[in-house]
Amino acid sequence: MRIMEGFPGYHLRLNQTSSPTLPPPLLNVTGGLMVNTTVKPFSVFEGCESMVEGILFDLAIQLFNVILGLPANILVIVILIQNRREPSTSDVFLGCLAFMDAYFGLMTPISFANFYHWHSKKVWMALKFSYGVKDTTGPLFLSCICVDRFVAVLFPIAFSQLKHPKYRISLSIFVFGLTFAYASAKMVGGFPNFEKVFTGEVLATFTWMMICNASILMALKRSRGAGKDEMHPMKKKAFKMVLSILVIIVVNYLPLVALFPFEDYYTPDDFRCYVQPVGYAFLNISSSIQPLIYLSRLEKVPFLPEAWVKRCCARNQPTSNKTPMTASSTETITTITSTAPLSPA
């Protein structure tokens, strides 16, 4: 649905707040002749009538987020509230991310209603704000989770001194400030080359998350211990988890990183009708992938049959516990497994 952001005539059409009934014919005088003309009705595919594949792909992803991602994010929030007495270090980031993804999912039905029925400029402004929220909160909060996990694995002593929630709350407030500033600017519009800000943000956060997760993987791989060929089962579990998360980060962010910086090399129609909707669709699907991965790592999920949870999560359980672990190693692995699930993209 974001594809409409780039259409020149879109803001004019959204000045209409009545129903999408065609207005009365307009009489245009041309060379002394009265020509009967009508205003073209609004279409979600305006400007891309012959290139609708990218837009349809984005619409399908947004529907998927409403059907599956929205309830999953709400369930994650409920679980985090229930576990507030024994929170993990990154629960603040996870909760903020789930809340913002749920908010973005709630705006999707409103988006459909406005495109096809209301045609309200005020609603469109609210939708642009939600797009700005999604553009910013996902990459920034995921980067915060990566920082938390990175410090826990590579600098465990420093991490033990920074466990107090006040540090994460302060960082979350800072992220919210950046988010609302960006979303407000996107809502108001009129800033030259404003989309370059989003491109720079994605490039920076993608690079940072790749470095963090790659460093964690190398650290876990080196931690087998002297004279041991096999990695400890818990560390092997964490290694596979971080590796899968790294793959998901690539899937969600690589299309944006690979396509958006080269906007000037595409024709305006190709970028607006194909590149933008497909790139945003890969970013938007993270609203469903993140909570589902988090839920798949839990031993017990509220409101779901226990048989479903066991079937889904059985393969995630460690198969052996023969090698003893020190307290510091256990703490590090616990941090990884508790912070990693919701941090793919």
Automatic annotation (TrEMBL):
Cited PROSITE patterns: G_PROTEIN_RECEP_F1_2
Protein name as it appears in the record: G-protein coupled receptor 183-like
Transmembrane segments: 59-80, 92-118, 138-159, 171-191, 197-220, 241-262
Highest taxon listed in the record's lineage: Eukaryota
Keyword annotations of the record: G-protein coupled receptor, Glycoprotein, Membrane, Receptor, Transducer, Transmembrane, Transmembrane helix
Native organism: Clupea harengus (Atlantic herring)
Localization per Swiss-Prot or TrEMBL: Membrane
Membrane topology summary: Multi-pass membrane protein
GO BP of this protein: phospholipase C-activating G protein-coupled receptor signaling pathway; positive regulation of Rho protein signal transduction
The G-protein coupled receptors family 1 profile domain, residue ranges: 72-294
GO cellular component annotations of the record: plasma membrane
MF terms in GO: G protein-coupled receptor activity
Primary location recorded for the protein, binned into one broad class: membrane
InterPro entries for the chain: GPCR_Rhodpsn (IPR000276), GPCR_Rhodpsn_7TM (IPR017452)
UniProt xrefs under SUPFAM superfamilies: Family A G protein-coupled receptor-like (SSF81321)
